[in-house]
Each structure stands twice: as C-alpha cells, then as structure tokens.
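Notebook, bench 3.
Goal today: get a predicted structure for DUF1656 domain-containing protein from Neokomagataea tanensis so we can plan the truncation constructs. The sequence was checked against the plasmid map this morning, with no discrepancies at the termini. Length recorded as 64 residues. Pasting the sequence as submitted so the record is complete.
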Amino acid sequence: MLAEFNIFGVFVAPVSVYALVALVITFSFRRFLWKVGLLNWIWHVPLFEIAFFVCTLCLLLMFA
C-alpha cells in the first residue's frame, strides 16, 4: 500500500516521490544510450523518452 512520505515534516504524495525516482532512472538511461550510440537509431527521441519515463513510473508504482 502506498503511504505518504514524511520529508522534513511535510507529507508528500507517493506518486511525486516515485516520479522523481523514475526521472532519475530515465536521465541515467538516456545518458547511457547517448554514450553507447543507440539513441541515434530511434526515430522520435522525445517520444521514446516520455514513453520510457511512463513505463518506468508504472513499474515503480506496480512493484512498490
């Protein structure tokens, strides 16, 4: 069950915390793909990044 996170006395919705974690994972994965050169093969890079962020967020919410 998802419960609120207490950050310095402020209760934060769990979705926002998981969204920040998914954002960090997405940025690190994007940097890895740029360094390897696989991101050049993708037709629409912003669409891929948003889809990857949404999939990562859904997986985090599903397994949390």
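The radius of gyration is 14 Å. The chain has a mean pLDDT of 93.
Flagging this for group meeting.
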